Structure formats: structure tokens, C-alpha cells
Automatic annotation (TrEMBL):
Compartment(s) where it occurs, according to its Swiss-Prot or TrEMBL record: Cytoplasm; Nucleus
Keyword DNA-binding included in the entry's annotation: yes
Domain of life: Eukaryota
Keyword DNA-binding (UniProt): yes
UniProt protein name: DNA damage-induced apoptosis suppressor protein
GO molecular function list: DNA binding; zinc ion binding
InterPro entries tied to this protein: DDIAS, Euk_RPA1_DBD_C, NA-bd_OB-fold, Rep_factor-A_C
Residues of the Replication factor A C-terminal domain: 9-95
GO cellular component, one term: nucleus
Lineage of source species: Eukaryota, Metazoa, Chordata, Craniata, Vertebrata
Length: 130
């Protein structure tokens, strides 16, 4: 793996996914496998009760600089200022909204949230650490 790090100034062309939070392992930040009662991290073996799972931001974007297109994923609390709340609290809001609206997938992002994220990011220029 290339260990060179740098900055990339680029504009967001599109949002690549509509699920902006994921259940994350507290130790290694990998996606947790959840069932109705337990969670399990396949990477480090961490386990616990599903109700105690932590959530983390994951925003997949297609971006463009002056020469190239890139697929990039932004993780973690650096997205808190854009959403205005932590990933944990956003996950709770999504679940509450879905329960009230009768959505069968409790983790599905409401369309209005997807539109707000698109409005916030698409066409805007950011500096990404890569």
C-alpha cells in the first residue's frame, strides 16, 4: 500500500450511497455484523449487545479535480459539523423517522436527508486529505 499522503482540492460530483452511518467497532472502526440482539466484529472479534453498537459516518463521494475523477470515502467525526450532530444521534433520528413513517428497513435514510446531503455537498469544492 502506498503510504504517501497529501491533499486534493476537488469538487463533489455525486453522492455514491444513501446510507451515511454504519455500526462501527469501537476498537478497529470496521463495520459490525448486527443481528437483533448481538453485534460481532469480523476483523478484531469484538462482540456485544446490539443496543450498545456505536455508529460512525461514512460518506462515499465521486469527486473531480481539474484533471481526474476519483471515488473517495470520508469517515468519522470530521462530518459532524456538516450534519450538525454525531453519527450516533443521526442514526437514532433515522430510526425514529422510519418507525413513524412505517419504513420496513430501520436503517434506510429518508429521502429528505439524502436530498439535504446532496445539496450540502454536490457542486461544492473541498480539500481532502488522501
Amino acid at each position: 500500500m502506498n503510504s504517501v499522503r497529501g491533499f486534493l482540492a476537488a469538487s463533489v460530483i455525486s453522492i455514491q450511497n444513501s446510507c451515511f452511518v454504519y455500526p462501527a467497532c469501537q476498537k478497529c472502526f470496521s463495520r459490525l455484523i448486527l443481528d437483533s440482539r448481538r453485534f460481532n466484529c469480523l476483523k478484531c472479534g469484538c462482540t456485544g449487545e446490539a443496543k450498545d453498537a456505536n455508529y460512525r459516518y461514512r460518506l462515499s463521494l465521486k469527486i473531480a479535480d481539474t484533471n481526474d475523477l476519483f471515488d473517495i470515502t470520508v469517515f468519522g467525526s470530521c462530518l459532524d459539523p456538516f450534519f450538525g450532530i454525531t453519527a450516533e444521534n443521526l442514526h437514532r433520528c433515522i430510526q425514529d423517522f422510519n418507525q413513524l413513517s412505517g419504513e420496513t428497513n430501520p436503517d434506510a435514510s429518508p429521502g429528505v436527508l439524502v436530498q439535504a446531503v446532496e445539496t450540502c455537498f454536490i457542486g461544492k469544492r473541498f480539500i481532502f486529505g488522501v
